[in-house]
Amino acid sequence: MSVRPVRPQVTNLCRTVLRRLPVLADELAERIAKEVLEYAAAGEVPRDDLAESCRDNIDYVFRRLGGLGPYELAAPRRTGRRRAEQGVPLAAAQSAFRVGFAFMWDTVVTEARRDGTVPDAQLVDLASELWAICESYTGEMSSAYRGVVAERVLRREQERSTLVGALLDGRLSDGVTAWEATSLLGLPYHGRFVVVSAEAIDLPRQALPGVERRLAGHGLGSAWRHTPDEQAGIVSLRAGGAVGPLLDGLAALASARVGVSPVFDAVDQAPAALQRARIAMAAARGRGDVRQFEDAPLPLLVTGSPTAARRIERQVLGSLLDLPAEERDVLLETLRVWFDTGGSAVATGERLFCHPNTVRHRLRAVEHHTGRSVSDPMSSAELYVTLAARRGLPDAFDPLGDDLVD
Prior knowledge:
There is one protein chain. This protein has 16 helices and six strands. The protein is of the alpha+beta class. Strands 1, 2, 3, 4, 5 and 6 form a six-stranded mixed beta sheet that branches. α1 crosses α5 (90-115) and α10 runs antiparallel to α16 (377-392). The N and C termini lie far apart (67 Å). Mean pLDDT is 83; it is low at 395-406.
């Protein structure tokens, strides 16, 4: 922001004001404490802290008005960050700035009348400059304030996501129990729970955008973890609550495949529930499909025994698993989408943004490496079950326990 060139009378006036800086800062701090409720007590903003901010801000404004420099905006940024860290509402900090600039204008008028060297026409110009400074100054303070708040929210979300991940993976540190973790997340330890696993495919967009807020509106508590591959959460059902309303809520939000575990009654059972939610997700037929674990009988038959499932995966997929990762994944994804679309090369091509003939070529490659034809019912069933189970198996696995309840 450019400020009009000042005359010597204004420069002298500003120098006179700056010589009284400590007294004026104390007077302004006293006025803010009287007029802004959040500053009345010395709890959130200690009085010496407030006086220091007042000195910074008065010093900047009168140096700028008097052409005395420097003109950088560190003072309002410092104030904005401090008030955010102290928990002062932004509206209160902005009110304090309005009180401060009114006080500084009063100071200009009082000193001009006492000195008698600044004509009224120039005072009008100073008023315009002062309120322009006020606007940019308050904007810098507010921006710094919001930056601190954003950092705090992000840090809280990251800490919350990390805690959820520790519960889901069964890797809580020695210093935190499952009971303490659920308390920090605002969830009960005992009750009725499910785990939800949603496929993350459109980063940075979430598979279930706003899910925690939406479920809270239906009286369902939840906590979520976000990774590049998955959005997973623990959902606390209301006492005696059915899963149906949860499934409806998830279906209304889902932009990807979603799986839901069976109900369990204590959060330390979440790791086993997560694997079952992933199995259900693997059985979903395309984006927006929400499946319960009980709806995935074929993959369940295989993944009920992970060790056997790995052997079956090798037997069915054969040399396809030995291809370079990028080529292997393209063929497996094409096969998955082909199953999801009911065996339509046209629909698969539309989903994968390729020509139907490309889909057919890839399916022939699958047949070559596996020795199983997608047009043969038995071979197709083997490929479908293995592919769905593959998505539900963890990289490092133990046999699933039987600790989930109906």
